[in-house]
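For the sake of transparency, this paper describes our internal protein records without simplification. The remainder of this section carries one protein's record, kept here as part of the documentation:
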Amino acid sequence: MRILAVDTTTARGSVALAEGDDVLAEVRFTSADRHSTHALPAVEFLLKTAGGGAPPDAYAVTTGPGSFTGLRIGLSTVQGLALASGRPCLGITSLDVLASRIRGAADTLVPLVDAHRDQVYVGIYDRNGTTTGEPRVEVWRELLEDLPARAAYTGSGALRYRGEIEARRPFSVFPERSPFLAAALARLAAGRFAAGETGTAEALRPVYLRAVDTRRSSAR
């Protein structure tokens, strides 16, 4: 099955075309405020150069948590493509994707996405990348109180707070991985499609975990 995967949940966006575990091509872009102008051209480029101009068999997209604007861009892009082509699509959380890339690194895997304000979006997984609880947003210092002395951390939150985590948990592991997620997303989606999981464009929903900030402008 040939899968087109889109990730725009962080400033490091990417689009990948994969067949099973083989990534045929990937396009990366790093300007978060222009993901809306990069995503579709990247899709078109991949399909022309690596896909022979034919639509993929299925689509995958990260549903968050992450940048509110970014994840909406990814979702709307994949929804439009899947609806237009009549192909199935899967929405997979960015935490699931991050955990899938560090399987086996420790008995407890902890993907962390920077949520700012000393907070992280977090999911807890076993060594096989299977979730052991619901994703949540939490102050990173408080999170450590419930984690074992040795766990593997990954993601933008792990990168930001690595020094502090190591000071409190010196046996922590930080596997080096690329910050671009589309290729890993495509591989994870391929496994889920092969296992019989599927989805539709209409069923895609963003995972925010925290309400969008809104501020009333003051009249002058």
